[in-house]
Amino acid sequence: MIEIPPGIALDEGELEFSFIRASGPGGQNVNKVATAVQMRFDARRSPSLPNDVSTRLQKLAGSRLTNDGVIVITANRFRTQERNKADAIDRLVELIARAAEPPPPPRKKTKPSKAAKAKRVDTKVRRGAVKAMRGRPGSAD
User: Fold this and answer.
1) How many domains is the chain partitioned into structurally?
2) Digitized pLDDT (tens) for each residue of the chain, 141 residues in all
3) Does residue 66 lie within any of the structural domains?
């Protein structure tokens, strides 16, 4: 069982791992050993996730989500399968933890009070008067 902070527990049987060859630097090791991990998690049909968390998770997954509702995470940061597998699991846990946070309440629209509007206009009038006094003494525009 994989524990996720707000009270969600994932069964490790829901995760599918396949090991693929990693790209990038690494010399001959890259060509011989399949160290990169491709993890698949079916977010749409997972019994461990509440419905609202599953919906938010699918939105957060973005391009990692397939048309079938499966999240695919590829980890090839490290040189060993074990560390890449742990990295993929950590990234999924972080994604689910972000999806488990409830969205903030919608913003309530407010209007400035009459006193605030009057204060703003009064300040503008005073500022205009100060600037008007800066003109030449003979000009009466």
Assistant:
1) 1
2) 776 766 777 777 888 888 887 776 666 666 677 778 888 888 888 877 888 888 888 888 888 888 887 888 888 888 788 888 889 888 888 888 888 888 889 999 999 999 999 999 999 999 999 998 897 776 555
3) yes
CA–CA gap between residue 118 and residue 111 (Å, rounded): 13
Q: 26's torsion region: left (phi>0), alpha (psi -120 to 50) or beta?
A: left
Rounded Cα–Cα distance for residues 61 and 72 (Å)? 9
Both tokens of 109, joined, read 């629209």
Identify the helix (H) or strand (E) that includes residue 59.
helix 51-61
> Exposed e or buried b for every residue in 110-135, given b needs 16+ CB within 10 A?
eeeeeeeeeeeeeeeeeeeeeeeeee
CATH at residue 83: 3.30.160.20
Q: What is the pTM of this model?
A: 0.66
